[in-house]
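Our consortium's second objective concerns turning raw sequence data into structural hypotheses that experimental partners can test. To show how far this objective has progressed, the report includes one record in full. It was chosen at random from the queue rather than selected for favorable results. The single chain below, 234 residues long, was entered without modification.
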Amino acid sequence: MLKRLVDVAISSAALIILLPALLAIATGILICDGRPVFYRGIRVGRLGKPFRTFKFRTMVVSAERLGGSATADTDIRITRIGRALRKHKLDELPQLINVLLGEMSLVGPRPEVPEYVALFSEAEQPILTVRPGITDWATLWDSDEGALLALTSQPERMYADFIRPEKLKLQLEYVRSQSFCTDLLILWKTAYAIIFRPIPPSFALLNKCNSAMLKGTGTVGGSTASEGQRPRTE
């Protein structure tokens, strides 16, 4: 109950305070790239209930049909204004609406697409027992995913084989040890990461990833990742 009250209080206050900035960003997207302003991707929420996220659109329309779904910072489908929004995480701000609606929380495992949730093992199912969030331990570990993916020649495989398994471990860790104090710590560390932009721990995967790709190996949850597995585009 306390977590939900904090979510409502902070998301409401933040949306009011940030309203001028949100309107300015929306206007910029309309002028530079046209409609739609928001990317409304389907994600899986608490207890497996699907919902649509609110994010500022940072890619060209129908980006899913124009290329792969793992998005590096160098992806040509990212718009010019979208590149700036992604760099400073401003595209994530509209998710405060999802928090206010009760579909997300400020802190919790990042919501995943249905295709990847379908791959959850029995041990990973507890991730769905809590509301997905804007940030958590996994988000902090991989706080600059676009830049990381830009350093590999196979971004989709990098995500599926190396990034996703680590994220799942950290998400499960959050679910098992969640507390109000933990949430406050994660929020503070998230603010620090956004302001000071330290090199995320996930970059340590590069050597492991490059070595595995040269050998032609790589697994997702113990099995080889298929080309049909598609992480979220935006």
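The partners drew two points from this record. The first helix runs from residue 2 to 33. Residues 2-215 form one domain. Both points have been shared with the crystallography group to help prioritize constructs.
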